[in-house]
Write a structure and sequence with these properties.
By secondary structure, the protein is an alpha+beta fold. Helices cover 32% and strands 12% of the residues. It is built from 6 helices and 5 strands. Strands 1-2-5-3-4 form a 5-stranded mixed beta sheet. Helix 6 links the parallel strand 3 and strand 4. The longest helix is centred in the first third of the chain and has 25 residues. It comes from Novosphingobium nitrogenifigens DSM 19370. It is a single-pass membrane protein. It holds the Pfam family OmpA. Keywords: Cell membrane, Membrane, Transmembrane, Transmembrane helix.
């Protein structure tokens, strides 16, 4: 029997719903987290290696290199200044920051950690000890007490400098010669006994005033200052300072006056003994 002709039913509509589950098939977020962890560990071990393999001075250079505010303190400085180069941006006395602000505390003890003049204050202690020894020696007699004002002690970047000054009433050498006066001999004896415990190197430098020699005289202030420096060295040797401690002697004539506005001032005639760092 044939089906009656009529309207056919509509085809069925099939709706597929796809649900996305977070971290399906484990996702990929964990890989990013793991990569961050590995990077952090690598940086940590690199830091530990740097602390153990570098010196204190090198660590200061690295720390200062990554301190943005220090860039303003040195105009025209290159990016590599101080980086493992042994010098820090804050080493100079003219900077507003102290070198001790970075890298002074470490997690490990480096192989060459022996302290330093600026880090541990040993230079100040050394200067104070020398000043005390010198004070005791200069109080030994009335003559030395009167000569104490001729001795000036100064801390410099290169070490501790002792200046033995002339004045209107005192002269280290006889006029125009390299012969020490009797008072100067006693003063140098006290100086030698004071610097004997310090084993650092020595530099002796002679200075003169600007007074010129007579025309035609072969002598000059250059040879005079150098000769007086050598005479001072010889006197220090006689009074017990070992010869191996002397690094050099220098004569600079009147080129480095102490009283700059009056080059002829007798105080410009002086002997400088530098106890090197």
């Amino acid at each position: 029997m044939a089906k009656p002709k009529g309207k056919e039913p509509p085809p069925p509509i099939i709706v597929k719903k796809i649900t996305v589950v977070a971290a399906g098939h484990h996702g990929g977020a964990w890989k990013v987290a793991y990569a961050d962890f590995v990077t952090a560990m690598m940086a940590f071990f690199l830091l530990m290696w740097l602390l153990g393999a570098t010196t204190e001075r090198q660590r200061k250079g690295i720390a200062d290199y990554f301190t943005p505010t220090l860039v303003k303190t040195r105009q025209g400085s290159a990016g590599s200044y101080g980086l493992l180069g042994g010098s820090s941006l804050t080493d100079a006395d003219t900077y507003q920051f102290r070198a001790g602000q970075t890298g002074t505390k470490t997690l490990t003890i480096p192989r060459d950690a022996t302290g330093g003049a600026k880090d541990g204050g040993s230079k100040a202690k050394r200067t104070a000890a020398l000043q005390e020894r010198l004070k005791q020696k200069l109080q030994a007699s009335e003559q030395l007490r009167q000569l104490a004002k001729q001795v000036h002690l100064t801390m410099t970047p290169d070490g501790i400098r002792l200046d033995l000054l002339d004045d209107a009433n005192f002269s280290m050498f006889r006029l125009g010669t390299t012969i020490l006066t009797p008072q100067a001999v006693e003063l140098i004896r006290a100086i030698a006994q004071s610097i004997a415990p310090d084993q650092n190197g020595l530099t002796v430098r002679g200075h003169t005033d600007s007074l010129q020699w007579k025309p035609g005289d072969p002598a000059n202030n250059w040879s005079l200052s150098a000769g007086r420096a050598e005479a001072t060295r010889q006197a220090l040797l006689r009074f017990g300072v070992p010869e191996k401690r002397f690094r050099r002697i220098e004569g600079v004539a009147d080129q480095e006056p102490l009283i700059t506005d009056n080059p002829a001032d007798p105080r410009n005639r002086r002997m400088s003994i530098l106890l090197m760092d």
